[in-house]
Fructose-1,6-bisphosphatase class 1 (Vibrio algarum), 337 residues
Amino acid sequence: MSEFRTLGEFIVEKQSDFPHASGELSSLLASIRLAAKIVNREINKAGLVDITGSVGAENIQGEEQQKLDLYANDKFKAALEARDQVCGVASEEEDEAVAFNKELNKNAKYVLLMDPLDGSSNIDVNVSVGTIFSIYRRVSPVGTPPTQEDFLQPGDKQVAAGYVIYGSSTMLVYTTGNGVHGFTYDPSIGSFCLSHEKLMTPETGSIYSINEGNYIRFPLGVKKYIKYCQESVPEENRPYTSRYIGSLVADFHRNLLKGGIYLYPSTESHPTGKLRLLYECNPMAFLIEQAGGLASDGKNRIMEIKPTELHQRVPFFVGSKAMVEKVEQFIEQNPNE
Ligand code: AHG
Ligand code: MN
Ligand code: MN
């Protein structure tokens, strides 16, 4: 890790990768960096002050909102609105997309979609949580309020995506389509410092991550794949190791570094899966592809799905290339369930 290469400097250095963006993306990522520090500070106080627990309301998806879900949502929105690069945001915690009203924001070229706090049900018990973000150029004319079309673009139109993981250390990992880079937060100097340049995920791995309690409700192909993971074939490193934290960001981050696969298939209670295409799956798909891996809904590449709704869910299989290809084969061979 180099404390002499901070995220801010790195972004400026890479600015020439985006001749059309001339510093705008740098300013946008600066908003994210700042909000991440504020949320990090608050999360670190969890348990000491009364900031954990539910607010007693549900979001549009019927999930209980935690105080920190709303805190993170507000801070990211405020940091983005304070600069002039984003004309509107969509969030897990907002029913509809939010258009920023400030005059300068109307001339902004980008929209951002986010899961402000991922894994928030884990926060009371001191388990890693995260923030996930996805950035697009708007398709509606600059100077007008953003439209639904700006937010419902397929993942392969993303210009940047990333996540912050608030874990044993806090990290920001992002891509702008030129590799994946990771920065570790040094609280003593208040900076994210370059720790993982050009991250590549192993071609295959030996970790599978799935909520196996739902086994009985999985499609047949997924059940068979799980049995395949558990078979003893020492020359192929099987049985694999099962690891599941229940925070997508944390499970994804571990598998990205070590090699593995994360699965959230459809179940009886969640017929299209649980994870949200726009602000959970697409950003992770962009990152994993940039790191040499794959992201699929079991049949199709995640980033080619044309979204129809803001909070749309999708089955999600993401990780090392060979492992995602393998589960796709199992699903293809067992099509009727
Ligand atoms: P969120 O906290 O943003 O609602 O996301 C929770 C998601 C994801 O982080 C995690 O991988 C998954 O839900 C866990 O779901 P199960 O508890 O059904 O395994
Ligand atoms: Mn989430
Ligand atoms: Mn969330």
The mean pLDDT is 93. DSSP finds nine helices and 15 strands in the chain. Residues 63, 92, 115, 118-121, 211, 246-248, 274 surround AHG (ligand 1) (CB under 6 Å). The first strand starts at residue 54 and ends at 58.
